[in-house]
Amino acid sequence: MPRVISVGIVSLATMNRNIAYCGLDCAECPAYTAMITNDNELRRSTAEKWNNPDFPVSQEDINCVGCKIEGGDRFKWCDKCSVRACASERRVETCAHCDDYVCDSLKEWLSFAGDEAKDRLEKIRSSF
Predict the structure, then answer these.
(1) pLDDT digits (tens, 9 = 90+) for 96-123
(2) Residue 95 lies in a domain
(3) Taking Cα atoms as reference points, which of 77, 27, 30 lies closest to residue 52?
């Protein structure tokens, strides 16, 4: 079993997880899970759930290794994500590490993404 070293509120085990810039936990994302387990039923059901007229999603779109991985498959939204583009350009680990935390772009995303991503970023931020 890996050793967990606590660093403030956030443990190294949490820090080493695939946490997106915006605070989403890739391990909890069905696109990530479907990719690493090659689960076509999960792809189908997720595409059905995420699909909408403004942003069509097909089963083939449900593959993602995480927004920080260069050269790997990402969910098509990631290439259009202003939070990802900003954080990548600023070379921060997460938005919680940014001097401009919480910016308008992140606020807008978090209003859609929900409390878990925001809470995760707040825990990371409070560990500094």
Answers:
(1) 999 999 999 999 999 988 899 999 999 9
(2) yes
(3) 77
